[in-house]
Amino acid sequence: MSAGQPHEYAGEEERLAVLNALRVLDTAPETEFDALTRAAALALGADSAMISLVDSDRQWFKARQNLDVPETPRSSSFCTYAIRSPDETMIVTDAASDPRFKDDPLVTGPAGIRFYAGAPLIVDNAALGTLCVISAKPRPDGLSPQEGEVLRELAIAAARALDARAARLRVERLERTRHVIDTRIKLALDAADMTVWTWNVSTNEIVNYGQHSGPEIVRRESTDDFLQRIAEEDRAPLVRAMRAAIDKNDTYRCEFRAVEDTDRWYTAIGQAVEDDEEGRPAIITGVRFDSTPARRAADMAKAQAQELRHRVNNLIGIVDALAGRTARETDARDDFISLFRSRLQALARTQRVLIAGEDEADLAALIEAVLMPFRRRDRSVIGVAVPDVSVSASLSQTLTLVLHELTTNALKYGALRWPLGSIDIGGSLEDGRLTLVWREESGRPLRTRDADTGDGSDDDAGQEGAVLDHTRFMSSGEGRTIAQRMMHAQGGQIRFELQESELLVTVEVPL
């Protein structure tokens, strides 16, 4: 608000709006206003002096000298008349003889006012009241020119003081609002782990606001000093992004790492908020935040997608190999369907174990999943004693198929076929390599395919002929080839040994 505008003045409604906007009515005394009324009373030799503000139905005194009442009704106010002529100082030499005031209670009552002089207080083109002096004695000569000038200057000073007071209040309100906004922004930045920064292109300075991790600049620092905080391999891309933001007047965005922590990434985003005389960015402001979690999440998603593709392709390859092998092992359609289904079910059990373990499977649980259907329908003993370890998805599938083939053949031709048969699965873990040992006791003597008693054909009679078929699978069959190929793909190996009355299969593979 500006003081002293002697042109077209505000009407009553606007005047009251300006007065109320000052937020000064009914406030406590203030030293600067009291000093003005003291100066007026002393300089003009008056009994009393007031800074009077004319409200809708009263006049209220912001400051008063030698006057007991804080306000009077507007109906008995001298100042009501004074504000009607904002460019003039109103002087009443003898109120008792003035038709406007001779019956006024302030004249006829105890106050006994005779002399009045008031200079309007002009704020925002509105006459809000006066700085006035009163005396109980008439002054036929009124005020001298010098005294009138003093009163007007003091009134201007009072109006400016009112204006300044309102400005201070506005600043205080803005500061409170700014504090609230700053608090909200700080909370938001803290929650998002962000830092606000300003880059003054013309002075080559960067200032950061906020206390967060990363290459912080608490005070103003040159761009060169800031760049020294950036990991060396990230400086050139960052400088290119900064130059592009200036040359193209475009949004600035860059990712970089700090020298002290090259495993953590930060993303800075900003845009020009002020241009120079040539229209080039002069001030660029923005935010910086830790983008490491987002990058890690993206890397994880990429790795998971790759793993999923690998797992699907691997599973398709396994199913294809199983289909080919099953077709070669069977002649009848129903036999193919039965055998192929059992092998797919073994794979399905593996997947259920994998899902429960989130990409890894507990080794003991995996083996039990393969053996479960055979335990239900067989009286033979199957013992398991393996290390408490987890195996990867791909190794789980390989072990499942190997164990399924061993168990299926044991059921058809070996230990699980005979009442006295037994299977023991043991294992050990050493230097990151897993060793599993399948020890199968058939309860009957084993003979190799090339034994003197026969060539392994069905004509070689009886129960011993069945055992020979089992050895054919282990010594030279398709199952052995597939098992060895799958183990080799895992970086491991599988060995088959035939002894007097047992089959020994050893698997070694890195975890």
Explain this structure.
Its EC number is 2.7.13.3. Keywords: ATP-binding, Kinase, Nucleotide-binding, Phosphoprotein, Transferase. This is histidine kinase. It holds the Pfam family HWE_HK. The protein is of the alpha+beta class and 511 residues long. It has three domains: 159 residues, Beta-Lactamase (2-Layer Sandwich), CATH 3.30.450; 98 residues, Beta-Lactamase; 215 residues, 2-Layer Sandwich (Heat Shock Protein 90). It contains 13 helices and 19 strands. Strands 3-2-1-6-5-4 form a six-stranded antiparallel β-sheet. Strands 9-8-7-12-11-10 form a six-stranded antiparallel β-sheet, sandwiched between helices. Strands 14-16-17-19-18 form a five-stranded mixed β-sheet, with helices on one face. The longest helix has 48 residues.
Percentage of β-strand residues: 25-35%
What is the residue-averaged pLDDT? 81
Structural class per helix/strand content? Answer: alpha+beta
The CATH top-level class label of the largest domain: Alpha Beta
Number of helices: 13
CATH homologous superfamily caption of the largest domain: Histidine kinase-like ATPase, C-terminal domain
How does the major sheet shape up?
A: 6 strands, antiparallel
Helical content (DSSP H or I, runs of 4+): 40-55%
Indicate the overall shape.
rod-shaped
Gyration radius, to the nearest Å?
50 Å
List the strand order in the largest sheet.
3-2-1-6-5-4
Our measurement of the CA-to-CA distance between the termini, rounded to an integer number of angstroms, reads 80 Å
Number of strands: 19
The count of domains is 3
CATH topology of the largest domain: the name is Heat Shock Protein 90
